[in-house]
């Protein structure tokens, strides 16, 4: 290529200017000074220079969009075309040396206008970015008969340029070859082909005839007229496509003419005129309504929008290359297709460019989101919405700015493609963000409700669960909506979070349902504990009543029925009352949870079942052999040891101990069958447990039934009948109990009998006679001795006086108290003494253990050693619930 001095320098005819590096500038360096002669777009060997785009970007044309103009110059070889352009635009196209007459410009060169605005014309708007193409001269001896290149270059110039300067000498006007009529005929023909296919816009071009060496003898108007007549004739000779037979040359071309004086003979005028002409190109303002053929146009501008080929500057080099490729390969030049191809190419390029910016803005967020998902703790990313909206707007706007200048159809398609790409990624980010908000929202909600409940419990349990749930649900929904709203990209169909919001709301409801169930469970547990405590106390009292003879509720035995016969009725009543109370409390509290009727039903049903379990366990505890035996003994003792008035009996040998014993024993023995079955006295049947507990509610879940023990008569399928459920003591247990009770009663009987016999022991009378006979000597000795007699007499008088004064009682009491005190003090001193010596301590230990073991052995039979029951445990207060 030409930018290496190469192709042109290699040709034997290459001028020295090529060898001295003028052409070497192109493409090898980015330094704009190396492009002082412009860039060779097409070299002499018809090769296209791929560095054209580099030149345009160095000249700051690439980003100009449509704000640039392209002018080509045509004309015979060595007619001063390059000279003309250099004067008009300050370019530095190579010019033939005066001494030689040979081809200078090979191929097609392009340079940007280098002339700035004059001081005098300041304020006048300069035409933007004028690019000029210096086309190899026609009719040159170097190409000879080969007119291929000049036709191809004409076609290329027409496809790209707005204005074609036709450079002719005045004396050439009227000639055919000299006036380039052959070339112009080709231009007209290809113009018809080129722009016929693209009917979307009206393409016009300006043919600007610059008449060189214009003397002025023939007025310019006459020359203009001659040329136009020639051109009209030429137009009529070309074959036109169907439908355009009647078209005129003016349908496609505008014309302007300008005469320039001889450069050699009138150098000053030449400079002045080229300067004026240059200003028309650079600063002239063209009124599109003014017909340049009719009116004055010497001061008129040149460019009209309709001349523009509508190729954005950044796509120009690619477009030009495509066009040239078609031309050089003799393919049908189809401009719309080329424009479409260009649009596709450029839109793809622009799309890639804008996607780089998009990646920079978004990838970090995508990575962060992916990382948090990978770690299993999705996180709401701050500032995501702003970044998403900003990146999307910037990307689409950037694409629109650059790509909208290209073929509309392609642009729309590519825009949709870009939107698809951008939106797919943004949508994924939005979903990620919403899903993170969902997960963290649910977690936060659960934690908030739990901690509010806990703090409520700490403050004494006075909290409203439903209120907490409602408050936290509202807060969670607001937070979720805030995240979603701040992340959505307005104006996009996919930026919709309604469905996700519904899902979130649904899950919140599920979680609150679960939390409520947990809360209800906790409530149920508390109520059950309360029931357990109350039943433990009340049922314990009823069992104690068996021994005390008074009802557990404190009511004395009434005459109608023996207390024992209504025992189970009382237990059942206590149970029913307690459970009804618990149910009422449970229902009150559960309703404050906003629990559904079904949930409350299940809770109550569980409560009844559990309460029955508690009662059953309590009864079983009371009915263990030791406890029951104790109750029976107490009952027996009550009847045996006390009379009808409740006064303790002192047994005398004359009493009917056997009779009383037998009645008391038989009465107590009737208790055993009574206690062995839970039956109500009225109906003589078990209580209606199945009816009372009720059927399993349909809304009960397997989890609700999991921890419930089967109940006979209620859970029929468990194979245990109500009768079995209500049987407290088996037959064998009853018999065993009867035997043991009888033994214990016998023990009491024996003790009573023994105490009755012990009460009748006396000192026999003969013992007094014997005492007199044996002590007669001592009596006589005392009576005969005056001292003894006197002492006896004084004692007798003292005793008589004491008796008279009724002081014997106090004296005896005082002496008893004194002796008692002396005994206690003596014992204490002895213990202290023993504790201070080792042997003494051992002796104490041995005596204590002996005492314990001997009392254990006697426990079953010695009524006095039986442990006394506590009247009942302290019940928890249900108000604590
Ligand atoms: N008579 C006359 N000669 C001119 C004029 N302008 C330039 N020349 C001379 O014409 C010769 C060719 O000038 P170029 O500008 O190189 O001509 P060109 O048409 O660009 O030549 P190629 O690029 O080889 O086709 C030079 O020697 C110029 O001095 C003019 O207005 N009148």
UniProtKB/TrEMBL annotation:
Lumenal side, ranges: 784-786
Keywords attached to this entry: Coiled coil, Endoplasmic reticulum, GTP-binding, Hydrolase, Membrane, Nucleotide-binding, Transmembrane, Transmembrane helix
Location in or out of the cell: Endoplasmic reticulum membrane
Biological process according to GO: endoplasmic reticulum membrane fusion
Residues the record lists as binding GTP: 75-82
Region (Disordered): 690-717, 836-881
Ranges of Acidic residues composition bias in the record: 703-717
Pfam family, any one: RHD3_GTPase
Superkingdom in the source lineage: Eukaryota
GO CC annotation terms, alphabetical: endoplasmic reticulum membrane
One GO molecular-function entry: GTP binding
Gene3D superfamilies reported for this sequence: P-loop containing nucleotide triphosphate hydrolases
Topological type in the membrane: Multi-pass membrane protein
Residue intervals on the Cytoplasmic side: 1-762, 808-881
TM segment ranges: 763-781, 787-805
Domain GB1/RHD3-type G: 65-320
Biased composition (Basic and acidic residues): 857-868
Ranges annotated as biased composition (Polar residues): 836-856
HAMAP family with a match to the protein in the record: Sey1
Family membership noted in the UniProt record: Belongs to the TRAFAC class dynamin-like GTPase superfamily. GB1/RHD3 GTPase family. RHD3 subfamily.
Name under which the protein is recorded: Protein sey1
Lineage, highest ranks first: Eukaryota, Fungi, Dikarya, Ascomycota, Pezizomycotina
Gene: SEY1
């Amino acid at each position: 290529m030409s930018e290496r001095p190469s192709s042109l320098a290699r040709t034997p005819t290459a001028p020295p200017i090529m060898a001295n590096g003028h052409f070497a500038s192109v493409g090898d360096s980015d330094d704009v000074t190396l492009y002082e002669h412009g860039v060779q777009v097409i070299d002499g060997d018809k090769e296209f220079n791929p560095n054209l785009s580099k030149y345009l970007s160095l000249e700051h044309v690439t980003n100009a969009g449509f704000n640039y103009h392209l002018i080509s110059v045509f004309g015979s070889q060595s007619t001063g075309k390059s000279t003309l352009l250099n004067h008009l635009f300050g370019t530095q196209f190579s010019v033939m040396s005066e001494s030689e007459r040979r081809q200078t410009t090979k191929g097609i060169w392009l340079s940007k206008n280098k002339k700035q605005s004059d001081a005098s014309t300041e304020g006048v708007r300069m035409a933007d970015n004028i690019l000029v193409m210096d086309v190899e001269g026609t009719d040159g001896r170097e190409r000879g008969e080969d007119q291929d290149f000049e036709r191809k270059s004409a076609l290329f110039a027409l496809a790209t340029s707005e204005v074609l300067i036709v450079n002719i000498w005045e004396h050439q006007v009227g000639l055919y070859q000299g006036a380039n009529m052959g070339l112009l005929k080709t231009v007209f023909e290809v113009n018809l082909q080129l722009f016929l296919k693209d009917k979307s816009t009206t393409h016009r071009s300006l043919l600007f005839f610059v008449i060189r060496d214009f003397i002025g003898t023939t007025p310019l108007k006459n020359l203009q007229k001659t040329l136009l007549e020639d051109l009209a004739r030429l137009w009529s000779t070309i074959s036109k496509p169907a439908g355009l037979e009647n078209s005129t040359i003016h349908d496609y071309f505008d014309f302007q003419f300008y005469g320039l004086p001889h450069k050699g003979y009138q150098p000053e005028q030449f400079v002045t005129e080229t300067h004026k002409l240059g200003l028309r190109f650079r600063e002239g303002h063209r009124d599109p309504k003014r017909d340049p053929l009719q009116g004055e146009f010497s001061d008129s501008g040149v460019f009209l929008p309709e001349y523009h080929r509508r190729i954005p500057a950044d796509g120009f080099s690619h477009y030009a290359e495509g066009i040239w490729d078609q031309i050089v390969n003799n393919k049908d030049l189809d401009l719309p297709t080329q424009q479409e191809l260009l649009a596709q190419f450029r839109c793809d390029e622009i799309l890639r460019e804008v996607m780089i910016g998009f990646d920079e803005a978004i990838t970090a967020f995508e990575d962060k989101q992916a990382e948090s998902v990978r770690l299993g703790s999705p996180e709401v990313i701050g500032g995501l919405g702003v970044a998403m909206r900003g990146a999307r707007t910037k990307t689409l706007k950037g694409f629109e700015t650059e790509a909208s200048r290209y073929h509309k159809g392609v642009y729309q398609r590519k825009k949709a493609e870009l939107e698809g790409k951008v939106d797919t990624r943004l949508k994924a980010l939005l979903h990620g963000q919403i899903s993170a908000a969902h997960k963290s929202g649910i977690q936060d909600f659960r934690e908030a409700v739990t901690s509010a409940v806990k703090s409520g419990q700490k403050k004494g349990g006075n909290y409203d669960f439903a209120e907490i749930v409602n408050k936290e649900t509202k807060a969670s929904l607001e937070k979720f909506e805030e995240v979603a709203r701040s992340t959505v990209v307005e104006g996009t169909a996919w930026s919709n979070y309604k469905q996700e919001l519904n899902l979130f709301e649904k899950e919140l409801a599920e979680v609150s349902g679960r939390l409520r169930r947990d809360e209800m469970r906790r409530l149920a547990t508390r109520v059950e504990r309360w029931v357990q405590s109350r039943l433990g106390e009340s049922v314990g009292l009823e069992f104690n009543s068996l021994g005390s003879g008074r009802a557990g509720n404190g009511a004395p035995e009434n005459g109608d029925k023996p207390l024992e016969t209504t025992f189970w009725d009382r237990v059942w009543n206590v149970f029913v009352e307690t459970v009804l109370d618990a149910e009422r409390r449970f229902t009150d509290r559960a309703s404050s949870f906003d629990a559904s009727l079904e949930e409350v039903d299940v809770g109550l049903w569980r409560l009844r079942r559990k309460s029955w379990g508690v009662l059953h366990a309590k009864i079983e505890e009371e009915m263990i052999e030791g406890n029951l035996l104790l109750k029976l003994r107490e009952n027996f003792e009550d009847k045996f040891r006390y009379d009808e008035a409740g006064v303790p009996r002192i047994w005398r040998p004359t009493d009917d101990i056997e009779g009383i014993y037998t009645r008391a024993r038989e009465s107590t023995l009737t208790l055993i069958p009574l206690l062995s079955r839970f039956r109500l006295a009225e109906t003589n049947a078990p209580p209606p447990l199945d009816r009372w507990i009720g059927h399993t509610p349909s809304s009960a879940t397997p989890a609700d039934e999991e921890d419930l023990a089967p109940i006979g008569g209620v859970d029929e399928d468990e194979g245990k009948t109500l009768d079995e459920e209500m049987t407290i003591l088996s037959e064998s247990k009853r018999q065993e109990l009867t035997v043991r009770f009888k033994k214990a009663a016998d023990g009491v009987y024996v003790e009573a009998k023994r105490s009755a016999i012990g009460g009748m022991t006396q000192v026999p009378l003969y013992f007094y006679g014997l005492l007199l006979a044996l002590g007669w000597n001592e009596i006589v000795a005392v009576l005969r001795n005056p001292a003894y007699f006197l002492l006896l007499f004084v004692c007798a008088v003292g005793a008589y006086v004491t008796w008279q004064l009724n002081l014997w009682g106090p004296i005896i009491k005082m002496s008893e108290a004194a002796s008692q005190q002396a005994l206690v003090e003596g014992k204490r001193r002895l213990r202290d003494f023993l504790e201070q010596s080792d042997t003494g301590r051992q002796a104490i230990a041995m005596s204590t253990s002996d005492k314990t073991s001997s009392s254990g052995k006697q426990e079953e039979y010695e009524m006095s050693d039986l442990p006394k029951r506590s009247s009942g445990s302290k019940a928890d207060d249900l108000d604590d619930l």
